[in-house]
Specification:
This protein has 413 residues and is an alpha/beta fold. 40% of the residues lie in helices and 16% in strands. It has 16 helices and 13 strands. The strands form two sheets. A seven-stranded parallel beta sheet has the order 3-2-1-4-5-6-7, sandwiched between helices. A six-stranded parallel beta sheet has the order 10-9-8-11-12-13, sandwiched between helices. Helix 13 links the parallel strand 11 (314-317) and strand 12. The chain is globular and about 70 Å long.
């Protein structure tokens, strides 16, 4: 009889993502997962769904990916099947959704969708368990629901989860409600919040001892770029975000169009979305001193390559809603100062010496005046030096994952 080599390994980590490593989403998980590989004999990645067959490179010697999840149509199509086969889960759900019949019905519908995928995931886990197994949901949404179901059904003993912002902030969702959130929180053993802001937003929903802040780390980039002194007449600015109304990239344009009344400005934006036609129409009326390059949706590596070969003076982000703001950390890793609107955990991404925080209600002219002042007083050059120092002290991947993995091990003990 053959021996299952994977079971002989002493330590396995099972990670549930939304779709990573497929597609372009969840790029901020790449470095953390790669670093976690150093602590485990084998890492198994289970994407909750797959919208494309495009897959990013990963450490095939250490990582195994569940490529396809079979969906149980009986669970999706039969309420009777759901109640007969999963009464234990439904009773557990009732305990967390007592306040509203509507909320219970909504969460039950979401639970059914998760259950339809869970049998396939359970089989994959059972086939690959080692001597010691840790389970990590990368989101406090469907990935956490999968592990909560497996825990209630005694397939796994414990699991931990990350919380990013949108997956736990109910004010950002329809009717100020997130289906299965309380169910997930009750059954997870520890929640690693991506910011103090996210932790505070959960403090009234779960015991505080279950919560801690764990910033997503990032590898220190390797690049050889001579930092040029910022010209008082020329400014190179970058922004990175999807083009949705709440991201307010239109306001970024308005700000830089004002700056261009006094200086030559080159603005490069990375990201795409429903507002692209609106933005393209808006910039037709730009100042002649403003050069704009809309790159669209690109990979994280393409953005990093741009940072490594260009002397960028400022990263700007004016979103009205943000859980944290990982793109700001990425910019600072290349020594780029940031100017950020105050929302969610954005203020936690930089120090007062490496960035500028503006309020949500400051006008485009107000913010343009701040930028002009930074350039005229030669403050951006000082901020460039401090930006990477702030990154190294707070977000460098090795130290962040060392602390995270130690906590994961304690939570599974």
């Amino acid at each position: 009889m053959g021996v299952n080599i994977s079971r002989m390994s002493s330590k396995h980590l099972f990670i549930i993502t939304m779709e990573y490593p497929f597609g372009k989403a969840e790029a901020f998980l790449e470095d953390e997962i790669e670093e976690l590989c150093h602590y485990y004999d084998k890492v198994f990645i289970i994407p909750y769904w797959k919208q494309t067959d495009d897959i990013r490179p990963y450490n095939e010697a250490k990582i195994q990916v569940l490529n396809e999840i079979e969906i149980d149509q009986k669970v999706l199509n039969s309420k009777l099947q759901l109640f007969l086969k999963h009464g234990k889960l439904i009773r557990a759900l009732r305990k967390t959704e007592r306040s509203s019949v509507t909320h219970f019905k909504t969460s039950l519908s979401h639970l059914k969708n998760v259950l339809a995928r869970t049998e396939s995931i359970e089989k994959f886990i059972e086939e690959n368990k080692g001597q010691e197994n840790h389970f990590f949901a990368m989101w406090m949404s469907a990935p956490a629901s999968v592990l909560a179901i497996l825990k209630i059904n005694d397939i796994i003993d414990r699991f931990v989860s990350r919380a990013h912002g949108y997956d736990v902030e109910e004010r950002r969702h329809h009717n100020n409600y997130i289906p299965l959130l309380r169910f997930n929180l009750k059954h997870t053993d520890h929640v690693y919040c991506n910011s103090k802001y996210t932790l505070d937003s959960l403090s009234d929903k779960v015991e505080k001892q279950k919560l801690s802040v764990s910033y997503l780390g990032l590898k220190k980039p390797e690049y050889n770029k001579s930092t040029e002194v910022t010209s008082s007449e020329n400014l190179t600015v970058v922004s990175v975000s999807n083009l949705y109304p709440f991201k307010r990239v239109d306001k970024v344009f308005q700000v830089l169009n004002k700056v261009a009344e006094k200086k030559n400005v080159k603005w490069t934006h990375f990201g795409d979305g429903e507002q692209m036609p609106v933005l393209k129409q808006l910039i037709e009326d730009k100042n002649e001193n403003l050069i704009i390059d809309l790159k669209g949706a690109v990979s994280r590596n393409e953005i990093f390559n741009f940072y490594s070969i260009n002397d960028v003076d400022l990263f700007i982000h004016l979103s009205e809603s943000e859980g944290f703001g990982y793109s700001m950390v990425e910019a600072q890793s290349f020594g780029i100062p940031v100017l950020v609107a105050d929302t969610g955990g954005t203020k936690e991404t930089f120090s007062v010496e490496s960035g500028v925080l503006v309020s949500q209600d400051q006008t485009a002219k107000d913010i343009a005046d701040i930028i002009n002042d930074l350039v005229d007083r030669n403050l951006l050059d000082k901020m460039k030096t401090v930006s990477q120092k702030n990154f190294l002290e707070k977000f460098e991947i090795k130290q962040s994952v060392t602390a995270l993995q130690s906590s994961i091990t304690k939570s599974h003990a």
